[in-house]
Design a protein that fits this description.
Elements (H helix, E strand, L loop, with lengths): L2 H5 L3 H26 L5 E5 L8 H16 L3 E4 L5 H11 L4 E6 L13 E5 L2 H10 L3 E4 L4 H15 L8 E4 L1 H16 L12 E4 L5 H10 L13
Helix pairs in contact: 3-4
Length: 232
């Protein structure tokens, strides 16, 4: 038994460690709430941190963020490179509020330089609360496991009425087409979700229309075709 294992062998030691971890978690929540308390209307943009994506995805995210700022929105991202950098860059260069909620990782993630507000989190779940809590909409570009995690958690929270509904856009029909087909052909077909749950999100290739569709969602009684779960 090495020293680290010996130090952890008593339950009381684990309890003490967990107590301090709880304080760190509460501290991260407090820091996030304080920093974002005056954010106003914001749109969260997700996507891959890696540079393997086509240049047009990067440019589309940059262009969308610029337009969102002009429409009166702040832009929230995970604060890293790739699509996150593109979105922060578009918002930053439009002289808008460009917020990066970075995560402390031993690899890959480093803050991008296009942020007016930067917060670094240790815990993914605290960071995700901030990305959801202040969002009037989600825009999801191609990405990996992290992007899928954020997408499906948001859809679950909307579906189960744990948060107020908002529009969710998936950018790139070629990238998302296989997933959407699987959702229809497997989840809906086997009854694990309702057919109308597919209307919680929309696939688009035209980022130019997204700011207007967000406005229409909140302006129209039918929420522009997005499904809005009803409280029973």
């Amino acid at each position: 038994m090495n020293r680290q294992e010996r130090d952890r062998q008593f339950v009381v030691d684990a309890m003490a460690e967990n107590a301090w971890r709880l304080f760190r978690i509460l501290g991260e929540f407090a820091e996030g709430f304080e920093a974002l308390s005056d954010i106003g209307r914001a749109v969260t943009i997700f996507g891959s941190a890696r540079s393997v994506l086509a240049r047009d995805s990067y440019e589309a995210a940059e262009r969308l963020a610029h337009q969102l700022v002009k429409a009166g929105y702040a832009v929230l991202t995970g604060g890293g490179p790739g699509i996150m950098e593109a979105a922060n860059k578009g918002a930053f260069e439009a002289a808008g509020r460009s917020i990066g909620l970075n995560i402390d990782l031993p690899f890959e993630q480093a803050p991008n330089p296009y942020q007016t507000d930067e917060i670094t989190f240790r815990y993914f779940f605290v960071r995700k609360v901030m990305l959801v809590k202040y969002a009037a909409a989600f825009v999801v570009f191609p990405g990996g496991f992290g992007t899928l995690d954020e997408l499906f958690e948001s859809l679950t929270l909307i579906q189960t009425l744990k948060i107020l509904p908002f529009p969710v856009f998936l950018v790139g029909s070629e990238f998302w087409g296989g997933l959407v087909s699987w959702i229809h052909g497997t989840l809906v077909a086997q009854g694990t979700i309702s057919p109308e749950d597919v209307d919680l999100f929309r696939v688009t290739d035209d980022v130019e229309r997204i700011p207007g569709e967000i406005e229409a969602y909140y302006r129209k009684a039918d929420h522009s075709g997005f499904r809005v779960p009803e409280i029973p």
